[in-house]
UniProtKB/TrEMBL annotation:
Subunit details: Homohexamer.
NCBIfam families: YbgI_SA1388 (TIGR00486)
Keywords (A to Z) from UniProt: Metal-binding
Organism, scientific name: Apilactobacillus apinorum
Source domain of life: Bacteria
Flavoprotein keyword on record: no
Family affiliation: Belongs to the GTP cyclohydrolase I type 2/NIF3 family.
Pfam families per UniProt: DUF34_NIF3
Descriptive protein name: GTP cyclohydrolase 1 type 2 homolog
PANTHER family: GTP CYCLOHYDROLASE 1 TYPE 2 HOMOLOG (PTHR13799:SF14), NGG1 INTERACTING FACTOR 3 (PTHR13799)
Length: 267
């Protein structure tokens, strides 16, 4: 089928207009009017993921993180990233990325993260403005089923997000936790909003060293399980695309990438 059908349907769910300004979302490589038969869903577009797509005869890659986040200055193929782009083109693989529009979408990335922690009474965290009479938010805030401590909650986050380790920033490990804010990716700069909205603990990735000092000074506990927890999007997107395939009678297969693209190891 024509790739534009899947893209148009997805952009009804997560419009480009709700993405953060200058976020390089959308078509990365290829032609939206090309025919597709098999879609690989991934968090990141890395050389090993492209090899996986080729091995599985996929003609489209749908990613959360943009494949071309930084502009290419030349096409020197001795550079691994450039060689990857060339391989995608050579194999006629279309690449489409949905980043902050998926983060901000209702029922999207941050709702999936909140669901992983079984949060109740979930609300939006950081307002991103109003589009088509709907207010969109980056991040979510809600309540745990049962009160716990900062340290116990951090331990549970390893289970929630299937990580071997994480960073805990806390002024008091035994502080009681009930209300939790979460923002996938790099959300350290929004911790004060989480605090203003009554969060006892904030879950986000990529917290900077000096921001961590500020969090402690402001008596805010933060759990940093890393950026890769956003891989939670893969099964959700696969299920969504498969449901649409049945609903609209699309002759496509959808598979989830099995490649772990987390660059970090805990040793």
């Amino acid at each position: 089928m024509n790739a534009s059908k899947l893209i148009e349907q997805f952009e009804k769910f997560a419009p480009k207009s709700i993405a953060v300004d200058h976020d390089p979302i959308g078509l990365q490589i290829g032609d939206v009017n090309q025919d597709i038969h098999k879609v690989l869903v991934t968090l990141d577009v890395r050389p090993e993921v492209v090899d996986e797509a080729i091995a599985n005869n996929c003609d489209m890659i749908f990613s959360h993180h943009p494949a071309m986040f930084r502009p290419v200055k030349n096409m020197d193929l001795s550079i691994p990233q450039n060689a990857m782009y060339a391989k995608l083109i050579k194999n006629d693989i279309l690449v489409y990325s949905a980043h902050t529009n998926l983060d901000n979408a209702e029922g999207g990335m941050n709702d999936w993260l909140a669901e992983a922690m079984d949060l109740r009474n979930v609300e939006g965290l950081v307002s991103q403005g109003i589009y088509n009479d709907n207010e969109y938010f980056m991040g979510r805030i809600g309540d745990l089923k049962e009160e716990t401590t900062v340290y116990e909650f951090a331990q549970k986050c390893k289970e929630f997000f299937n990580v071997d380790g994480l960073r805990l920033i806390s002024h008091q490990d035994d502080h009681k936790v009930k209300r939790v804010a979460v923002l996938g990716g790099d959300g350290g700069k929004f911790y004060s909003i989480a605090q203003e909205k009554g969060a006892d603990v904030y879950v986000t990735g990529d917290v900077y060293y000096h921001v961590g000092h500020d969090m402690i000074a402001d008596n805010m506990s933060v759990v940093d399980p890393g950026h890769h927890i956003e891989s939670i999007c893969k099964p959700y997107l696969c299920e969504m695309f498969k449901e649409w395939s049945k609903e609209f009678d699309w002759p496509i297969d959808v598979i989830e990438s099995n490649i772990n693209t987390d660059p970090y190891q805990f040793i």
